[in-house]
Design brief:
The chain is α/β, with parallel strands linked by helices. It is built from eight helices and twelve strands. The chain has a six-stranded mixed β-sheet with strand order 8-9-10-3-11-12, with helices on both faces. β1 and β2 form a beta hairpin. The two termini are 35 Å apart.
Protein backbone atom coordinates (compact mmCIF):
# COMPACT_ATOMS: atom_id res chain seq x y z
CA UNK A 1 0.00 0.00 0.00
CA UNK A 2 1.23 3.52 -0.78
CA UNK A 3 1.20 5.77 2.25
CA UNK A 4 0.66 9.51 2.29
CA UNK A 5 4.28 9.96 3.39
CA UNK A 6 5.42 8.36 0.11
CA UNK A 7 3.71 10.94 -2.05
CA UNK A 8 5.68 12.91 -4.60
CA UNK A 9 5.04 16.55 -5.46
CA UNK A 10 3.30 16.96 -8.80
CA UNK A 11 5.99 19.40 -9.96
CA UNK A 12 9.12 17.33 -9.22
CA UNK A 13 12.16 17.49 -11.50
CA UNK A 14 11.23 14.19 -13.20
CA UNK A 15 8.34 15.84 -15.02
CA UNK A 16 9.55 19.45 -15.17
CA UNK A 17 9.87 19.76 -18.96
CA UNK A 18 6.76 20.69 -20.95
CA UNK A 19 5.77 17.96 -23.38
CA UNK A 20 2.37 19.27 -24.45
CA UNK A 21 0.90 22.78 -24.32
CA UNK A 22 -2.59 23.94 -25.15
CA UNK A 23 -2.98 27.70 -25.53
CA UNK A 24 -6.50 29.07 -25.80
CA UNK A 25 -7.70 25.99 -27.67
CA UNK A 26 -11.32 25.92 -28.81
CA UNK A 27 -13.43 23.94 -31.21
CA UNK A 28 -16.61 25.03 -32.98
CA UNK A 29 -18.67 22.68 -35.14
CA UNK A 30 -20.71 24.37 -37.85
CA UNK A 31 -23.82 22.82 -39.35
CA UNK A 32 -26.57 24.22 -41.55
CA UNK A 33 -28.84 24.68 -38.54
CA UNK A 34 -26.48 25.99 -35.87
CA UNK A 35 -22.96 26.38 -34.57
CA UNK A 36 -21.90 24.32 -31.56
CA UNK A 37 -19.04 25.48 -29.38
CA UNK A 38 -17.61 22.22 -28.04
CA UNK A 39 -14.53 23.65 -26.31
CA UNK A 40 -13.39 27.16 -25.51
CA UNK A 41 -10.25 28.72 -24.04
CA UNK A 42 -8.51 25.52 -22.97
CA UNK A 43 -5.11 26.31 -21.48
CA UNK A 44 -3.05 23.40 -20.18
CA UNK A 45 0.58 22.38 -19.85
CA UNK A 46 1.49 18.70 -19.48
CA UNK A 47 5.01 17.87 -18.41
CA UNK A 48 7.39 15.25 -19.74
CA UNK A 49 6.62 11.83 -18.26
CA UNK A 50 3.37 12.98 -16.66
CA UNK A 51 0.17 10.95 -16.62
CA UNK A 52 -2.87 13.23 -16.93
CA UNK A 53 -6.50 12.06 -16.77
CA UNK A 54 -9.31 14.13 -18.29
CA UNK A 55 -12.83 13.82 -16.86
CA UNK A 56 -16.14 15.61 -17.30
CA UNK A 57 -19.78 15.02 -18.08
CA UNK A 58 -20.84 13.47 -21.38
CA UNK A 59 -20.70 16.09 -24.12
CA UNK A 60 -18.11 18.27 -22.38
CA UNK A 61 -15.63 17.82 -25.23
CA UNK A 62 -13.23 15.23 -23.78
CA UNK A 63 -13.11 13.12 -26.92
CA UNK A 64 -13.04 16.19 -29.16
CA UNK A 65 -10.03 17.43 -27.21
CA UNK A 66 -8.25 14.12 -27.59
CA UNK A 67 -9.04 13.97 -31.30
CA UNK A 68 -7.47 17.40 -31.74
CA UNK A 69 -4.37 16.22 -29.87
CA UNK A 70 -4.30 13.11 -32.09
CA UNK A 71 -4.32 15.17 -35.30
CA UNK A 72 -7.80 14.00 -36.32
CA UNK A 73 -9.80 17.21 -35.80
CA UNK A 74 -8.34 20.70 -36.23
CA UNK A 75 -8.92 23.35 -33.54
CA UNK A 76 -11.03 26.37 -34.43
CA UNK A 77 -8.79 28.61 -32.39
CA UNK A 78 -5.72 28.43 -30.22
CA UNK A 79 -2.51 26.45 -30.52
CA UNK A 80 -1.39 22.92 -29.65
CA UNK A 81 2.34 22.47 -29.12
CA UNK A 82 4.22 19.17 -28.78
CA UNK A 83 7.70 19.82 -27.42
CA UNK A 84 7.34 23.41 -28.58
CA UNK A 85 6.29 22.53 -32.15
CA UNK A 86 2.84 23.35 -33.48
CA UNK A 87 0.77 20.26 -34.22
CA UNK A 88 -1.65 22.18 -36.42
CA UNK A 89 -1.02 24.82 -39.08
CA UNK A 90 -4.54 25.99 -39.80
CA UNK A 91 -6.44 22.85 -40.80
CA UNK A 92 -3.26 20.99 -41.78
CA UNK A 93 -1.55 18.67 -39.32
CA UNK A 94 2.25 18.56 -39.11
CA UNK A 95 3.20 14.98 -39.98
CA UNK A 96 6.60 15.28 -38.28
CA UNK A 97 4.89 16.13 -34.99
CA UNK A 98 2.33 13.36 -35.53
CA UNK A 99 5.18 10.86 -35.55
CA UNK A 100 5.63 11.59 -31.84
CA UNK A 101 2.09 10.41 -31.00
CA UNK A 102 0.45 7.07 -30.23
CA UNK A 103 -3.34 6.73 -29.91
CA UNK A 104 -5.56 4.10 -28.28
CA UNK A 105 -9.36 4.27 -28.57
CA UNK A 106 -12.15 2.48 -26.70
CA UNK A 107 -12.41 -0.05 -29.51
CA UNK A 108 -9.18 -1.90 -30.23
CA UNK A 109 -9.82 -1.61 -34.00
CA UNK A 110 -7.55 -4.52 -34.87
CA UNK A 111 -7.44 -6.03 -38.35
CA UNK A 112 -9.18 -9.40 -37.87
CA UNK A 113 -7.23 -11.04 -40.70
CA UNK A 114 -3.89 -10.03 -39.12
CA UNK A 115 -2.23 -11.95 -36.31
CA UNK A 116 -1.30 -10.22 -33.05
CA UNK A 117 2.24 -9.79 -34.36
CA UNK A 118 1.07 -8.33 -37.67
CA UNK A 119 -1.29 -5.90 -35.95
CA UNK A 120 1.48 -4.67 -33.65
CA UNK A 121 3.97 -4.42 -36.51
CA UNK A 122 1.67 -2.49 -38.87
CA UNK A 123 2.98 1.03 -37.99
CA UNK A 124 6.53 -0.28 -38.41
CA UNK A 125 5.72 -1.79 -41.79
CA UNK A 126 4.13 1.46 -42.94
CA UNK A 127 7.27 3.29 -41.80
CA UNK A 128 9.41 0.98 -43.92
CA UNK A 129 11.17 -0.99 -41.19
CA UNK A 130 12.67 -4.30 -42.31
CA UNK A 131 11.19 -7.68 -41.40
CA UNK A 132 13.90 -8.58 -38.87
CA UNK A 133 13.60 -5.19 -37.20
CA UNK A 134 9.81 -5.55 -37.01
CA UNK A 135 10.07 -9.04 -35.56
CA UNK A 136 12.45 -7.87 -32.83
CA UNK A 137 10.27 -4.88 -31.91
CA UNK A 138 7.11 -7.01 -31.82
CA UNK A 139 8.78 -9.45 -29.43
CA UNK A 140 9.76 -6.58 -27.13
CA UNK A 141 6.28 -5.10 -27.14
CA UNK A 142 4.48 -8.42 -26.70
CA UNK A 143 6.60 -9.01 -23.61
CA UNK A 144 5.95 -5.49 -22.34
CA UNK A 145 2.16 -5.74 -22.58
CA UNK A 146 1.92 -9.31 -21.35
CA UNK A 147 1.21 -11.02 -24.68
CA UNK A 148 4.37 -13.09 -25.11
CA UNK A 149 3.34 -16.42 -26.61
CA UNK A 150 0.25 -14.97 -28.31
CA UNK A 151 1.99 -13.38 -31.29
CA UNK A 152 0.46 -15.87 -33.76
CA UNK A 153 -3.08 -15.61 -32.37
CA UNK A 154 -5.84 -13.69 -34.14
CA UNK A 155 -8.11 -11.03 -32.57
CA UNK A 156 -11.13 -13.37 -32.53
CA UNK A 157 -9.15 -15.70 -30.25
CA UNK A 158 -8.46 -13.02 -27.65
CA UNK A 159 -10.43 -11.58 -24.75
CA UNK A 160 -11.38 -7.89 -24.73
CA UNK A 161 -8.53 -7.05 -22.38
CA UNK A 162 -6.03 -8.89 -24.55
CA UNK A 163 -7.24 -7.07 -27.65
CA UNK A 164 -6.67 -3.76 -25.88
CA UNK A 165 -3.16 -4.90 -24.97
CA UNK A 166 -2.54 -5.44 -28.69
CA UNK A 167 -3.89 -1.95 -29.42
CA UNK A 168 -1.59 -0.46 -26.78
CA UNK A 169 1.40 -2.35 -28.16
CA UNK A 170 0.58 -1.14 -31.68
CA UNK A 171 0.37 2.47 -30.41
CA UNK A 172 3.77 2.03 -28.74
CA UNK A 173 5.40 0.42 -31.78
CA UNK A 174 7.03 3.59 -33.11
CA UNK A 175 8.15 4.69 -29.64
CA UNK A 176 5.81 7.67 -29.22
CA UNK A 177 6.70 10.33 -26.71
CA UNK A 178 3.02 11.15 -26.16
CA UNK A 179 0.39 8.42 -25.68
CA UNK A 180 -3.26 9.47 -26.08
CA UNK A 181 -5.95 7.15 -24.69
CA UNK A 182 -9.70 7.70 -25.15
CA UNK A 183 -11.77 5.52 -22.77
CA UNK A 184 -9.57 2.52 -23.63
CA UNK A 185 -11.10 0.27 -20.96
CA UNK A 186 -14.68 1.53 -21.05
CA UNK A 187 -16.05 -1.63 -22.68
CA UNK A 188 -14.31 -4.06 -20.32
CA UNK A 189 -15.79 -5.79 -17.28
CA UNK A 190 -14.85 -4.40 -13.85
CA UNK A 191 -12.17 -6.96 -12.97
CA UNK A 192 -10.49 -6.76 -16.39
CA UNK A 193 -10.62 -2.97 -16.24
CA UNK A 194 -8.94 -3.02 -12.83
CA UNK A 195 -6.23 -5.31 -14.16
CA UNK A 196 -5.69 -3.07 -17.19
CA UNK A 197 -5.38 -0.02 -14.95
CA UNK A 198 -2.48 -1.72 -13.21
CA UNK A 199 -0.98 -2.68 -16.55
CA UNK A 200 -1.23 0.71 -18.22
CA UNK A 201 0.55 2.49 -15.38
CA UNK A 202 3.29 -0.16 -15.47
CA UNK A 203 3.65 0.30 -19.24
CA UNK A 204 3.70 4.10 -18.94
CA UNK A 205 6.48 3.93 -16.38
CA UNK A 206 8.44 1.36 -18.38
CA UNK A 207 8.31 3.39 -21.59
CA UNK A 208 8.57 6.87 -20.04
CA UNK A 209 5.74 8.07 -22.27
CA UNK A 210 3.66 11.11 -21.38
CA UNK A 211 0.02 10.00 -21.20
CA UNK A 212 -3.28 11.84 -21.69
CA UNK A 213 -6.10 9.52 -20.59
CA UNK A 214 -9.78 10.36 -21.15
CA UNK A 215 -12.27 8.58 -18.88
CA UNK A 216 -15.76 8.89 -17.37
CA UNK A 217 -14.65 6.94 -14.30
CA UNK A 218 -13.54 9.21 -11.43
CA UNK A 219 -11.82 6.42 -9.48
CA UNK A 220 -9.90 5.32 -12.58
CA UNK A 221 -8.87 8.91 -13.30
CA UNK A 222 -7.47 9.45 -9.80
CA UNK A 223 -5.87 6.02 -9.55
CA UNK A 224 -3.86 6.49 -12.75
CA UNK A 225 -3.02 10.17 -12.85
CA UNK A 226 -0.44 12.59 -11.56
CA UNK A 227 -3.09 15.25 -12.23
CA UNK A 228 -6.79 15.11 -13.07
CA UNK A 229 -8.20 17.74 -15.44
CA UNK A 230 -11.92 18.44 -14.95
CA UNK A 231 -13.72 19.95 -17.95
CA UNK A 232 -17.00 21.87 -17.58
CA UNK A 233 -20.17 21.01 -19.51
CA UNK A 234 -20.36 22.38 -23.05
CA UNK A 235 -18.62 24.48 -23.96
CA UNK A 236 -15.84 22.57 -22.29
CA UNK A 237 -13.20 24.55 -20.47
CA UNK A 238 -10.80 23.65 -17.66
CA UNK A 239 -12.76 23.83 -14.42
CA UNK A 240 -9.96 22.59 -12.18
CA UNK A 241 -6.70 20.67 -12.29
CA UNK A 242 -6.31 18.39 -9.27
CA UNK A 243 -2.87 17.02 -8.36
CA UNK A 244 -2.72 13.42 -7.14
CA UNK A 245 0.37 13.07 -5.01
CA UNK A 246 0.57 9.30 -4.52
CA UNK A 247 3.80 7.85 -5.90
CA UNK A 248 3.56 5.53 -8.87
CA UNK A 249 3.33 2.63 -9.47
CA UNK A 250 0.24 2.26 -7.30
CA UNK A 251 -1.52 -0.90 -6.24
CA UNK A 252 -5.25 -1.26 -5.76
CA UNK A 253 -4.94 -0.83 -1.98
CA UNK A 254 -4.14 2.85 -2.48
CA UNK A 255 -7.87 3.30 -3.05
CA UNK A 256 -8.46 2.58 0.64
CA UNK A 257 -6.35 5.56 1.71
CA UNK A 258 -8.44 8.33 3.34
CA UNK A 259 -6.89 11.01 1.15
CA UNK A 260 -7.61 9.02 -2.00
CA UNK A 261 -11.24 8.91 -0.96
CA UNK A 262 -11.16 12.65 -0.27
CA UNK A 263 -10.01 13.33 -3.85
CA UNK A 264 -12.83 11.18 -5.22
CA UNK A 265 -15.41 13.01 -3.11
CA UNK A 266 -14.11 16.42 -4.15
CA UNK A 267 -14.30 15.60 -7.85
CA UNK A 268 -17.71 13.97 -7.51
CA UNK A 269 -19.03 16.99 -5.62
CA UNK A 270 -17.70 19.31 -8.33
CA UNK A 271 -19.42 17.27 -11.03
CA UNK A 272 -22.73 17.18 -9.12
CA UNK A 273 -22.63 20.96 -8.71
CA UNK A 274 -22.98 21.21 -12.50
CA UNK A 275 -26.55 19.85 -12.35
Amino acid sequence: MTSVSEREPATDDRVATAKLELRGVGKRFRTRRADTQALVGVDLTIRDGEFVSVIGRSGCGKTTLLRMLAGLVSPSEGEILVEGRSLWHGSTVDSSVMSELGVVFQEANLFPWYSVADNIALPLKLRGDGRAQRRERVAELAELVGLAGFEKAYPRELSGGMRQRVAIARALAIGPKLLLMDEPFGALDALTRERMNLEVQRIALATGATVVFVTHDITEAVFLADRVVHLTPRPGRVQQVMPVGFARPRDIDVQTEPEFGALIRELRHALHQED
